[in-house]
Amino acid sequence: MTESLPAYVRRITAKPETVAAATEFYDRPCAAAGLNSYRYRGRYGWIMIGATSPLDALSEAARSTSDAIVNDNLQKWDGNAYVPVTAADF
């Protein structure tokens, strides 16, 4: 069965975030076995981090950017999605 013209037009003109948002590498866990997946919002996008704790993740983020490191930019993979790290996580 061939794709209808309206369906084809919708598919090729869709915004990238609606087409591949769930498959982008920064929306998936990327840490090696034994580490937790974190991501830090840097100046130019997400910095993907594998670390043992939030403090370790912030330390790794500091190695990847010259900007001041703030806790609010850190997120942790909870098994389904990245969620903000809270004060209780430290």
Which of globular, elongated, flat, extended, rod-shaped describes the shape?
A: elongated
Question: What is the number of E strands?
Answer: 4
List segments where confidence is low: pLDDT < 50 over at least 5 consecutive residues.
none
Strand content: 15-25%
Give the helix/strand class.
Answer: alpha+beta
pLDDT averaged residue by residue? 86
Physical arrangement of strands within the biggest beta sheet: 2-1-3-4
What is the H/E order? HHEEHEE
Task: Please describe the biggest sheet, giving its number of strands, its sense, and whether it closes into a barrel.
Answer: 4 strands, antiparallel
| Helical stretch tally | 3
The rounded Rg comes to 17 Å
Distance between the termini: 54 Å
Helix content: 25-40%
Question: What can you see in these coordinates?
Answer:
The protein is an alpha+beta fold. The chain has a domain at 23-82. Helix content is 28%, strand content 23%. The protein has helices at 5-13, 16-20, 54-64; strands at residues 36-42, 45-51, 74-77, 82-84. Strands 2-1-3-4 form a four-stranded antiparallel β-sheet, with helices on one face. The chain is elongated, with a radius of gyration of 17 Å.
